[in-house]
Amino acid sequence: xxxxxxxxxxxxxxxxxxxxxxxxxxxxxxxxxxxxxxxxxxxxxxxxxxxxxxxxxxxxxxxxxxxxxxxxxxxxxxxxxxxxxxxxxxxxxxxxxxxxxxxxx
Length: 105
Known about the structure:
alpha+beta; Arc Repressor Mutant, subunit A; two-stranded antiparallel sheet
């Protein structure tokens, strides 16, 4: 891929928290507070994840100023982000493999 940075090609690290944020975006929660409420994660977790997703080209953000007294940043998937995020749910760290009888705790 000519012109792509390694970070963009590799994508963000897919922790359970990142997968939760991606799920919130897929469910239609597009601004920070809605994502925080949907995931139950703290602001100090959600906003850095959104920044990483944006740095890797998975999401873009714009300011919604329809209510000037309450501007908010709205996050939307890029085509790449939408495609790659749809494949993360099947192989996500949020879904550990099922335990078998021989597994020790």
